[in-house]
């Protein structure tokens, strides 16, 4: 049972070096960079700046750890599961410290960081339970031949993650790769590295052999570029922007045709019909669009409201959004924290300006909140048209844009008119409408009368330019394994 939450804004930073071969070490160059607290703009940590030489070092030990006969490859499937369960136990024992680090690094309210750390434990335990449930097939064949398939871990996996849900993303990507029997080199986002390094310490304490997990901090793209181009990396598990996802795919093709899973950007439509439970729709949509300051890949950032309830719904939505408390992660009752850094702050503010210039009506917010910390007011636009920049692009900030629609066919056509296809949601009491919408919408996940229901056992993937490959659920382990076919001649009848 997890201990009660204990918010601490003065959490000590214990791990600030690279984690290679189960040791914390300085970068080969000796260079460092600084990490800033997005709520205070104050220095949070001085971290090691890895480069391609450190990547080579980490890939080499990960490769050694993957060799057949190594301590890692010699473990039974269930022993691998026990190690992952031990890691989950240790995350649970350190839940407060991890949640505090998450809030300091990312700025999200402590209670949300705490909840996400509990989710991380569930992800690790789920994949711990998958290690001994990986099966091949026996295939019927003509004649005296036995044909069967086995699943084998793909090899060294480069895990590259963004900064918006650091502990959640790392926990499932890491535990998926380890459950499949791979070894890994992790590249956390430069803005949120602290919990990745903290997990390195727990990996060692759990008893994972040296080289199985390696973690490299780096400001800028150098480590990501080196990993994706590396000829001895067999797979990249990437979550981030569509722009960088394309570069990852290109690097994989140019280097060694490594396998790639891409979880990318989104601009997800939420559709509310006249017959919907309005309070339910208001709750889910307002929370999901403003949580993590709008920096959620599957946030419902295009809101379509049917004409019969449009005025009433929009008025209530604005009322709810105007009451959202914005502030630092350790302040009471805060729901929305800061943008991750000054670059994203400026980027979101510039999208708001573009929206105004192109003729959308800003009916709430639209400005920076306060002068210290990268906060932006919850912002709502109406009178938005389908061809505006704010309709097409992922803004990645606390900005909702609202459209009016009349019919199901119309809203499906307009909702599909976007390059992304990550998630979508529909609010209606009519099962037929919900099923028709779900069938026609181009998205990897559809939520009906809810939003953001994710679990370790539920597959998640992006359609169109939102990604490639699937994560979560036991079947997604296929993306981390090769299938081998063995043919055995059983009788000699020639
Ligand atoms: P980003 O693409 O800029 O960076 C992601 C990671 O890639 C970082 O660790 C970064 O250092 C690294 N990177 C940068 N350049 C690289 C290169 N050339 N080669 C290899 N790696 C490189 O994304 P971000 O700004 O950190 O995160 C926000 C984006 O992530 C949004 O678009 C959001 O929708 C997306 N996201 C998607 C999901 C999903 O599941 N689909 C989940 C979370 C976030």
From TrEMBL:
SUPFAM superfamilies documented for this protein? ALDH-like
Q: Which UniProt keywords apply?
A: Oxidoreductase
**In this protein, which residues make up the domain named Aldehyde dehydrogenase?**
25-485
Per the Swiss-Prot or TrEMBL record, the active site comprises: 263
Query: Pfam families in the record, alphabetically?
Result: Aldedh
Q: Which GO terms describe its molecular function?
A: oxidoreductase activity, acting on the aldehyde or oxo group of donors, NAD or NADP as acceptor
Q: Per its UniProt record, what InterPro entries does this chain match?
A: Ald_DH/histidinol_DH, Ald_DH_C, Ald_DH_CS_GLU, Ald_DH_N, Aldehyde_DH_dom
- State the source organism's domain of life: Eukaryota
The family classification in the record reads: Belongs to the aldehyde dehydrogenase family.
Question: What is the name of the protein in this document?
Answer: Aldehyde dehydrogenase, cytosolic 1-like
Q: Which organism is it from?
A: Ceratosolen solmsi marchali
């Amino acid at each position: 049972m997890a201990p009660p939450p204990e918010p601490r804004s003065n959490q000590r930073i214990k791990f600030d070096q690279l984690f290679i071969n189960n040791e914390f070490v300085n970068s080969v160059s000796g260079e460092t960079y600084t990490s800033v607290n997005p709520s205070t703009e104050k220095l949070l940590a001085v971290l090691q700046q890895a480069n391609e030489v450190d990547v080579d070092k980490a890939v080499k030990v990960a490769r050694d750890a993957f060799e057949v006969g190594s301590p890692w490859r010699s473990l039974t499937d269930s022993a691998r599961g026990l190690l992952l369960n031990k890691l989950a136990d240790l995350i649970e024992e350190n839940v407060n410290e991890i949640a505090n680090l998450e809030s300091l690094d990312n700025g999200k309210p402590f209670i949300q960081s705490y909840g996400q750390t509990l989710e991380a434990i569930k992800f690790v335990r789920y994949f711990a339970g998958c290690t001994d449930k990986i099966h091949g097939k026996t295939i019927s064949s003509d004649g005296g031949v036995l044909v069967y398939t086995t699943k084998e871990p793909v090899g060294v996996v480069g895990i590259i993650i963004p900064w918006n849900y650091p502990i959640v993303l790392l926990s499932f990507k890491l535990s998926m790769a380890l459950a499949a029997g791979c070894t890994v080199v992790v590249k956390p986002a430069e803005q949120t590295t602290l919990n990745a390094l903290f997990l390195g310490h727990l990996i060692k304490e759990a008893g994972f052999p040296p080289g199985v997990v390696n973690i490299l901090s780096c400001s800028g793209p150098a480590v990501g570029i080196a990993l994706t181009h590396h000829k001895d990396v067999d797979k990249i598990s990437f979550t981030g922007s569509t722009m960088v996802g394309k570069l990852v795919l290109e690097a994989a093709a140019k280097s060694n045709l490594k396998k790639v899973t891409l979880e990318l950007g989104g601009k997800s439509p939420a559709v509310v019909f006249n017959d919907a439970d309005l309070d339910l729709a208001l709750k889910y949509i307002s929370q999901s669009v403003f949580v993590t300051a709008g920096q959620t890949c599957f946030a419902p950032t295009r809101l379509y409201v049917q004409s019969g309830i449009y005025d009433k719904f929009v008025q209530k939505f604005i009322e709810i959004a105007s009451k959202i408390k914005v502030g630092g992660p350790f302040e009471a009752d805060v729901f929305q924290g800061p943008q991750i850094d000054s670059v994203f702050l400026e980027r979101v503010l510039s999208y708001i300006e573009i929206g105004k210039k192109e003729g959308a009506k800003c009916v709430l917010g639209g400005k920076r909140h306060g002068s210290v910390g990268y906060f932006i007011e919850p912002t709502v636009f109406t009178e938005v048209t389908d061809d505006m920049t704010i309709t097409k692009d992922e803004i990645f900030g606390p900005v909702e844009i609202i459209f009016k629609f009349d019919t199901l066919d119309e809203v499906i056509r307009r909702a599909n008119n976007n390059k992304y296809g990550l998630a979508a949601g529909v609010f209606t009491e009519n099962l037929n409408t919900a099923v028709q919408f779900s069938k026609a919408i181009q998205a990897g996940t559809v939520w009906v009368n809810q939003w953001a229901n994710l679990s370790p056992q539920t597959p998640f993937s992006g359609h169109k330019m939102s990604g490639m490959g699937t994560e979560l659920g036991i079947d997604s382990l296929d993306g981390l394994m090769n299938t081998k076919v063995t043919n055995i001649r059983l009788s000699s009848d020639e």
